[in-house]
Amino acid sequence: MDRIILDTSSILFGLSNRVDVFKGIKENLDMAPVISKGVVKELTLISRSRKSSSKHAKVALAMIKSYGIDIVDNEEYVDKWILRSARRFSGVCTNDIKLKRELRSRGIATYSVSRDGSFR
Asked: Which one, of 12, 18, 25, lies nearest residue 91 by Cα?
């Protein structure tokens, strides 16, 4: 099965709109979601904050564990890792406009989570 990178923005956007991005990726794109260790770190920091997205970050961390999402070990900044590693995967799912623009300029397939749960 092809694998696709998910970043923090796509996970949190999906959950804030009641979209299970992990399940959606598998069902709609027929790909296995992959995240970096940096995404887990970002979600952990957000989950401990007073931000409105902290509850979504907590849910995301629980989902990552329960679904057994593949976590790639890395120590660099998440976007930098995505830009460096994207060619080894079938695409990237991000709702970060700047990152999406950079990936597209490099010819990388990109997807975003929409409010209705579709991936574009």
From this structure: 25
CA 50 to chain centre: 21
Amino acid identity of residue 45, one-letter, is L
**CATH 3.40.50.1010 describes domain 3-111:** yes
120 residues of the chain, pLDDT tens digit each: 899 999 999 999 999 999 999 999 999 999 999 999 999 999 999 999 999 999 999 999 999 999 999 999 988 899 999 999 999 999 999 999 999 999 999 999 999 999 999 999
Domain ranges in the chain are 3-111
**pTM for this predicted structure:** 0.94
Q: Within 10 A of 104 (CB to CB), how many other CB atoms are there?
A: 12
